[in-house]
Amino acid sequence: MTNAAFGAAFAGAVAALAFRARALTAGGAVAAFVVGTFVFTTTGWRGALVLFAFFIPSTLLSRLGRARKLHLDAAGKHGPRDAWQVIANGGVAALCALLVPHGGPVVAAAFSGAFAAAAADTWGTEIGTLSRTAPRSLLTFRPVETGLSGGMTLVGTIATVAGASVVASASALPGFAAFWPVAAGGVAGALLDSLIGATLQAQRWCPHCARACETNPHRCGTPTSLRRGFEWIENDAVNLAATLAGALVAGSLAAFATLR
Question: Where do the domains of the chain lie?
Answer without folding.
Answer: 47-259
